[in-house]
Specification:
The chain has 109 residues and is of the alpha/beta class. It has one domain: 3-Layer(aba) Sandwich (Rossmann fold). It is built from 4 helices and 5 strands. Strands 2-1-3-4-5 form a 5-stranded parallel β-sheet, with helices on both faces. α2 runs parallel beside α3.
């Protein structure tokens, strides 16, 4: 079985912590800012994108739409203090903070 590639979109300590957690569990991880996420995703072709939802709603939705244009489309997980069910319609899984680590690892695999 190959190692899943996970692109972590987030700034600061939260993004680094997510990237470190996933790497410790055997994932191949890259960490980027929201501004560079779509370009890196197109070039690196991750299996999954995990976005820290400190992003403003408009920017978060824009990121999700950009990721949807990538083929094959990576699974997308948004972590937020207030999960948005509006993203469900876009094929995005929302996880509430504090993150259920087991669920995150299951979804990212």
């Amino acid at each position: 079985m190959s190692t899943a590639r996970v692109l972590v979109v987030g700034a600061g300590a939260d993004g680094r912590a997510l990237a470190e957690l996933l790497a410790l569990h055997g994932f191949e991880v890259a960490e980027v800012s929201q501004r560079h996420a779509a370009g890196v995703a197109r070039a690196w072709m991750p299996d999954c994108v995990v976005a820290e939802a400190a992003l403003p709603e408009h920017e978060g939705r824009m990121l999700v739409e950009q990721l949807a244009s990538i083929a094959p489309r990576p699974r997308t997980i948004v972590i937020s203090p207030r999960p948005s069910h509006a993203l469900d319609a876009l094929g995005v899984t929302c996880l509430a903070k504090p993150v259920d680590v087991e669920r995150l690892l299951e979804l990212a695999a």
